[in-house]
Amino acid sequence: TLARLGGDEFAVLIDGAHEAHAVAVARRLLGSLSEPVWLADRELSVTASIGIALHPGGTGGSAELLRHADVAMYAAKEAGRDRFELFHYDMARELGEQLGLEHELRLGLQRGEFTLYYQPEVDLESGKIVGVEALVRWSSPRRGLVLPDRFIRVAETTGLILALGEFVLREACSQTAQWRNEGLLPEGFVTWVNLSGRQLMSGGFSDCVRLALHDAGLPAECLGLEVTETALVEEGTGGARARAELQQLHDEGVRIAIDDFGTGFSSLGQLRSFPVDMIKVDRSFVQGVEDGAKDAAITANLVTLAHALGLLAIAEGIESDTQLASLRGLGCDLAQGYLFARPLPEAQVRTVLTGGFGDLVSGSGVAA
Ligand code: C2E
Ligand code: CA
Ligand code: CA
Description:
Strand order of the largest sheet: 7-8-10-11-12-13-14-15
Order of helices and strands: EEHEEEHEHEEEHHEHHEHHEHEHHEHEH
Helix content: 40-55%
Largest sheet: 8 strands, mixed, barrel
Distance between the termini: 49 Å
Bound molecules: ligand C2E, calcium ion
Structural class: alpha/beta
Number of helices: 14
C-alpha cells in the first residue's frame, strides 16, 4: 500500500515483509527515483530519504510503527540523504533525548532562558559596521550556553519555532530601538533576523513582524529578514501566501535577504520576482574560495548575479585575510565572519558600534 502522509512524505506498507525484503524495496524505490524526469523543458532529478521499520509484533500499534519509520527516515537524512536506514533502538533513545529536549525548550521559553547575540556586518569599502545578524542562544541551567544547531531543528519539528521566532523578532526590534534611541546607530543600519521556513509557512508572520516593530517603536527600514532559498520557492498555497506576506513587508520598508545563497538551486527567473535586497553567499563557498577553483568561480558568479539584479552581496563566514582579499577582489559589498567579530552579547555590541573595523583587522570577541 502506497500512501501520501502529507507534503513530500510518503509511506509504503508491505504486509508480511521481513528485513531483506523491505531493504530490497527501498533499493528499488531509490533506483527508480534516481531516473531524471523532464518537466516543462527542464531535466529534474529527485532523491529520497527512506526509513524502514519492521513491526515488532505483539503489542506495538501502527502509530508506533510509523514513528519508528519516521525516526529512521531522519537518520537517513542526517546520514546524507538519498539513502535508507533501518530503525534500531539506539535511534529510539535519540528520540527520547529529543523529547526531553523539547520539554526543556518549552520550559526555557517560559523562563526567559533565550538571549540574542549579534554578529556585525561590515561594509568592505568603508570598514564601517552597517548591520548585525541576530543569532539566538539558549542559556540552559542544565546544559550551559547552547548553540542553535543543537535546538533549532527540534524547535522546527515541534512547532516551538513559532514562539521562539516571535521572541527573537520582538527582542531584536526592542534592542535595536534602544541602540537607535541612544544614538549609537549609523544611517541605514539594519538588524537581521533569521526566519525559518516553518515560520514563513505558518501564515500571519507579517502581522507578528509589524507588531514587533510597532511595540518597539522601530522603523521598518531598520529590520531585515533572512530567509532561505528553499523556503522562498515553496510550492502550493502556503508558499504563495508566504511570498505575498514578504512582498507586503518589503513594500513597507522591511529588508529581505536570501540566506545560504547558492545551496538551494532557485532558478534565476524566480529570483528576479522575489522581493529581495541582498543575498548572503553561503559560508561553504567562502571557505573554499582560497583553495578551490570551483568555489571561487561559483562565488564570483553569485556576486555578479547579485549585482546584475541590483542586489547587495554579503559573504558570511570570513575567517582569514586571504578570504577577505578574495571576496573584496570579487566585488562583494559586505562581509561577516570571525575575522571581524564573533556573535557578541549586547554589551559588547555597544563597544564595536562605536569602533568599527576601519583597519579591517581581526575583532576581538568572546564566546560563541
Ligand atoms: P546562519 O544563518 O548561516 O548563521 C550564521 C552562522 O555562522 C552562525 O552560527 C554564526 O555564529 C556562524 N559564523 C559566523 N561567522 C563565522 C565564521 O567566520 N566561521 C564559522 N565557522 N562560522 C561563522 P550560529 O549562531 O551557531 O547559528 C547557526 C544557525 O542557526 C544559523 O545559521 C541559522 O540558520 C540558525 N539560527 C540562529 N539563530 C536563529 C533564529 O533566531 N531563528 C532561526 N529560525 N534560526 C536561527
Ligand atoms: Ca542567517
Ligand atoms: Ca547563512
